[in-house]
Amino acid sequence: MTTNPPILTYTLEEILSRLDQKIEKQFAEVNQKMDRQF
């Protein structure tokens, strides 16, 4: 039980990649708002 099943690691990578995409989108929106203010 020490080794992770490939399905579990795959889902973890999927969640991490989706989180990265969400964070990048939020940062892009914040940057656009900052550009509009200044």
Strand and helix map with partners:
Elements: H1 6-37
The low-confidence parts are none
Average pLDDT figure? 88
Task: Name the beta content range.
Answer: under 5%
Q: Please state the overall shape, judged from the principal axes of the Cα atoms.
A: rod-shaped
Radius of gyration, taken over Cα atoms and rounded to an integer in Å: 17 Å
| Number of alpha- plus pi-helical segments | 1
Largest sheet: none
Count of extended strands: 0
Q: What structural category do the secondary elements indicate?
A: mainly alpha
Alpha carbon gap, first and last residue: 55 Å
Give, in order, the helices and strands.
H
What share of residues is helical? Answer: over 70%
Account of the 3D structure:
- This protein is mainly alpha-helical.
- The mean pLDDT is 88.
- It has one helix and no strands.
- The protein has one helix spanning 6-37.
Feature tags:
about 40 residues
Concise structural overview:
This protein has 1 helix and no strands. It is mainly alpha-helical and 38 residues long. The relative contact order is 0.09.
